[in-house]
Amino acid sequence: MTAKSLAAALAAATLVATPALAVELKLADFQPPTHFVVDSVYTPMAEAISEGTDGEVTVRVFMGGELGPGPAEQYNRAVDGVAEIVFSLPGYTASTFPKTLLAELPGVIDPETGTERMLANIDMLSDEYRRVVLLSLWNNAPNLLFTASQPIRSMDDLNGLNIRVPSRNAGLVVEAWGGVPVSMPATDVYNAMQTGVIDGAMIDATTLTAFRLAEVTNYITVGMDTAISQFFLVMNRDGFESLSDDQQAVVLEAGREAALNGNAAWLEIANTALDDFAATEGKEVIELSPEAVEAFNAASAPVVEQIIEEAEAAGVDARAYVEALGDE
Predict the structure, then answer these.
(1) Rounded to two decimals, what is the model's pTM?
(2) Where is the signal peptide (predicted)?
């Protein structure tokens, strides 16, 4: 073998032996580092991606807004590539996701089956995620009415109170109930309730522990049909397309499992947190009377129809999506 052919053979062998360059995906979340989402969702997802790609793709999680403050900016961080994957609520950038947010309307999905129904119809949302790749979409536990000092036993009790809402749609529901909606991310609710900036919040029961809202809440009202928020994990499109086809398939499957894990975790922790709150001296969970439930639901029903009609008028196939979510 000549020196030239030997060098060529060695170079070829080196190329074959050289492992593919590892890719680290940054995942950004504004929630505190102690939030249960880390162990329930992100750790299993990271493990599945690493194992499924033989360690060629890994995930590094940044909690507490470490890659940038402001929950409402999360979606843009994915678009701009500040992080490859971000967690957020579509309600924080509601104008971008009118179809996605139809699922949060009272009565559209069931908290136990809503995530599976959204995943089964996820292709119907593709037009809203052209700038990113939708990896995960799941619903939380039902949003309840938390108040600091005013117990809500009827719609009259809610009249004129400033109530934090997670999205425009939820705000319209609160307004129909007689409250004054105040748009605010979950991270700001504690201080706002503590200082009296708001009288209460429409929010799910996991926040009693995850955001320590049990410390500033004395009453929680349950029983009416209410908004059920969605969470998503979206990925920078360039980052996704830089992966091989096999790696993309692994990431998508890990994202789907993350959605199911997220839904299960939110429901379980919400139930436990609400039970613990009810058992705490000086705290009260108010179960609305049948008459009060009927009044709340009658007030919100026209809002649901109004939002669907507005979306249809804007060119969104809203009614078809709502009907698909309800089909089993």
Answers:
(1) 0.88
(2) 1-22
